[in-house]
Design brief:
The complex is a heterodimer of chains A (about 260) and B (about 325). With about 260 residues, chain A is an alpha/beta fold. Chain A is built from ten helices and ten strands. In chain A, helix 3 runs parallel beside helix 6, helix 4 crosses helix 6 and helix 6 packs parallel to helix 7. Chain A is globular. The relative contact order of chain A is 0.19. With about 325 residues, chain B is an all-alpha fold. Chain B has one domain: MetI-like (MetI-like fold). The radius of gyration of chain B is 28 Å and the shape is globular. Chain B starts with a helix and ends in a 15-residue tail after the last helix. Classes of the chains: A alpha/beta (about 260), B mainly alpha (about 325). At the A-B interface, helix 2, helix 3 and helix 6 of A face helix 7 and helix 8 of B.
Amino acid sequence: MDTSAPTPTTMTIRAASLYYGIFRAVKEINLCFRPNVVTAIIGPSGCGKSTLLRSLNRINDRVAGFRVEGTISLGDTDVYAPGTDVVDLRRRVGMVFQRPNPFPMSIFDNVAFGLTLYAPPTRAALAALVEDALRASALWGEVKDKLRRPASELSGGQQQRLCIARAIATRPDVLLMDEPCSALDPISTLKVEELIAELKCSYTVVIVTHNMQQAARASDITVMMNMDAVDRAGHVIEVGDTDTIFTNPKHPQTEAYVSGRFG
Amino acid sequence: MYNEPREARVTRDVVWERRIIAARRRAALVDRAMTGLLALAALGLALVLSAIIFIILRAGLPALSWSFLTSASSITDPGGGIGPQIFVSIYVLVLSLLIATPVGVGAAIYLAEYARPGPATNAIRFSTEALASVPSVVFGVFGAIIFLTTMSLGFSVLSGSLTLALLNLPLMVRIAEDAIRSVPVAYREASLALGASRWETIRKAVLPSALPGIITALVLTGGRILGETAPLILTTGTTISPNARYSLNPLQTGETLAVHIWVLKIVGVPGLKDAQLVADGSAAVLLLIVLLINLAMAFFTTRLTRRLRGVGRAPRAGGSKKG
């Protein structure tokens, strides 16, 4: 893996293990998510991909008994240090969830939600920022005439792009995506994948996916994870350029997984 | 020999299919019976409500007139009204809800959003459930000891409102907590992931969705406040001072409509010829007030929900084209 000096928007995981109570769900992770690169995490169900992703913005803190050993850092900020401002961390590390989860508000208010939290902009500035975010998520053309309609009226794919717009409206450094297309039809999936390819120009993108073609199409680096047969903890099997992982994997488990023989 | 195994299989299939057909027939029958029974139960509910409305209004409507609604009551001469009683009922309702709502909704938010599961939380929840089933007259006795004697507030609207606030807290907490809990976790995670603090998440992403449920809590407790008698007899009293009718002073004694009905029907007012008619009229007014509040709240909740979901707001740029 690339070992050049980390930038302020690089997420680094060093010797990290993630626990639910006494159960170690993920073990001995050493990874680096770089800016302007899409990193895909693949692996069979239950191997801890989502747990790993959800530990990066500490959204898993909500789960009782969840704890982290080792270090996860964004730039030089230790994510799990006692003094870390979790709210500010989450502003810097945006997240898109598996199921589109727009708020039961208008399209406009959904995108404005994060913006109005920090420095409430003026009405005109807010409208411009919302438009920017919707343009960046390739949704502006479809919704510009109905910004005041409820977000629930959009299709699933549009809702997911709305959630992406909502996440990038606050200009995070890192964008985490937890199987963002698993609830979408193939055409919406393609649109979101195109969007991911554009987003990497501005963000550090980490995407968890079950869909091998998606990892192959949309990512630059692929992380293969699997559950250890002995202690049932998820761990990293192989990391490499997406092309290499899919055409010439080193590890037999990766080879079996990407060729569809298990998982 | 060639046919034998096949024959056997066919026979088995026939038995199997007969069993399936019988089972399906049974299921269809039970299905129809249950549909009928459940519909009957629902119909029974509607019938009970209609019967209550019909019988109460038939008895009470003859008493209703503008002067009945506005003039003061009389315990000596016929022709008295219920104006002050209506006023006291509304006053107790508003004051009691003003006292109970911040505490009740606050506790509900705490229990739903902050409290970690554990013995302390379980104890709080158990106390809430237990308190909810304490008879209201017990709250009346408690209120009489604490508010009347210890805090020397005397028989007063304030004592009664405080007592009813305590009486209604458990129910309010229960319903409001359920409403808050039923807001999808996805909203909370979406809000937190956008960098909202815990309170911002509650205020902006959770409470708006829980609001219809919280309003239901207020309406239900409000209905109980209007109908309560026992605790009020012990705390606000059964009289309205003639020189303090329509007084906003919370330390005045008071008599709500429900208590007024109790006095006229049960205690009895010797010498008052139209006592029964006034009581029936009061019941009709009470019923109409409650129905009105329910309708108003249902209307309000619908509008609120629609506004929160983004429907019905004036569109800004681009007109109101539908997509």
